[in-house]
Amino acid sequence: MEISPTPIITLTTDFSSDLYRGQMKGVILSINEKVQIIDIGHHTRHYDILEGAFLIWQVCSRFPPGSIHVGVIDPGVGTSRAGLAIKTDKFYFIGPDNGLFSLALKDQRIKTIIQIDPSKFEKVSPTFHGRDIFAPLAAYISSGKKIEDFGQRIDKIKELKLKKNSIIYIDEFGNIITSLRKISPLAKKVTIHYKDRKIKAKFAQAFAEVKEGEFVILRGSSGYLEIDKNKDSAAKDLGAKVGERVKIYPSGL
Fold this sequence. Notes:
Blueprint: E1 8-13, H1 18-31, E2 36-41, H2 49-60, E3 68-72, E4 83-88, E5 92-96, E6 110-116, H3 129-142, E7 151-153, E8 167-170, E9 176-178, E10 189-194, E11 197-204, E12 215-219, E13 225-229, H4 234-238, E14 247-252
Parallel strand pairs: 1-2, 1-3, 3-5, 11-12
Antiparallel strand pairs: 4-5, 4-6, 6-7, 8-9, 9-13, 10-11, 10-14, 12-13
C-alpha cells in the first residue's frame, strides 16, 4: 500500500474544543505540510469509545486507499494502555488500544499491528498522547516512514463487541441507531421497548412514510435498524443514551 503524493490524515476525537485538535493539526503540518487533514468528527460524547468506534467504522472505508485514520477517544491516556499503529490492506489506523478500531477492522485485512513505543517521541505529555504520539506518528507515516520503526509487532488488540438489543449511535438529528439488523420482512408495524415505555411505530423505508412527529423504524444506511421520528428527535423524546438496551418487536403485518 502506497501513500499518495497528497496524503490524507483523518481525525476522530471527543475533544470538542478547537484547542486540542488545533494542536494536533499543527504538529502534523509541522512534520509534513503537504498532508490533507480531514475532520471526521470531534463531538462524540466524551469518553464514549463505542460511539467513536461506530463513527470511524462507518466513515473510514469511504476514503481513498492509503488514508491514515487517527482516533483519540482515550479515557485511559497515561495509564498502561498501549498505543497502536495498524496497517491493513487499505488504510492505517493510529490511536489507543481500547477497542476504538475493532469495529472498522472487521472489514479490513490486517497486515501489521505495532504497539507504539512512546520513547520514540520527544516531550510526551501523560495526558495528551493525541498531540505528542498519535499525530506525529501519522505525519511520519504520511512522509513515507514505516510503522515498524515506532514499536514492536503484536498479534491482538482489544475488541469492542456490540451488545445485543442496544443503542450504538445517536446522530445529530436524534436518530437512534441500534445493534439490531433483522426484523420480520413482513412486519409493517412494530413495538419499541425502551426503559418503561412501549411505543407503536411503523416499519418503513423512508421518514416521509409517517406523519411529522411520528415514530418510525427504518433500516438505515449503516444496515442497522434505526428508531426515528419524522422531522423530530427520537433520542430527545426517549431520553436515549448510547449503550442502553432497546428492543423492537413486530406487532402487526
